[in-house]
């Protein structure tokens, strides 16, 4: 048993983070695409933010279980490749400095790196957060107000479409702002890929 598998079993003993069924390995076969109508580009997710998938995301994001990033990244890579063929460039949603200090790692960048390695594509961390705080607990309207104008592109991707990567899409406000910033910089934003969708 690998160290990765042992850590996975400790975090979620005997359960798949997608279907909740027996067996610690991620059940790629039941991963399904979740579409969103509240964002301006196609948005693909492994599944709904509930049950075992929600527990896996929370363990990864809030409890420091970085090892889950590999498993979740592989799941998301499998969803992406069914929906959108390379070449494309991954642009992760940037982590706010306060969240990084609390967590000690950037979970979205980790996901993007796993996906990039799996699909042989590149990562361009060109979005920067200008302002706006944590949106946890806010209503959809409050989230939109909180993130309005919050991103700027500090670089550009030329010659390939861009896929935005995030961990969870809730109201869609963060995605809308990321798309706006990248398009303002002249990029072709083809879609968004997230682990889970509310």
How does this model look, in words?
The chain has helices spanning 3-11, 51-61, 68-83, 97-103, 107-119, 140-147, 173-184, and strands at 43-48, 89-92, 122-123, 127-129, 151-153, 162-169, 189-197. The protein has 198 residues and is of the alpha/beta class. The protein has a single domain (30-197), classed as Rossmann fold. The longest helix is centred in the middle third of the chain and has 16 residues, at 68-83. 40% of the residues are buried.
Summary tags:
18% strand, 7 strands, 38% helix, five-stranded parallel sheet, alpha/beta, 7 helices, two-stranded antiparallel ribbon, Rossmann fold, 198 residues
Task: Describe the SSE topology.
Layout: H1 3-11, E1 43-48, H2 51-61, H3 68-83, E2 89-92, H4 97-103, H5 107-119, E3 122-123, E4 127-129, H6 140-147, E5 151-153, E6 162-169, H7 173-184, E7 189-197
Parallel strand pairs: 1-7, 2-3, 2-6, 6-7
Antiparallel strand pairs: 4-5
Helix pairs in contact: 3-5
The secondary-structure class comes to alpha/beta
Distance between the termini: 34 Å
- Radius of gyration, CA atoms, in whole angstroms: 16 Å
Strand content: 15-25%
Secondary-structure element series = HEHHEHHEEHEEHE
What is the CATH architecture descriptor? 3-Layer(aba) Sandwich
> Could you name the CATH topology?
Rossmann fold
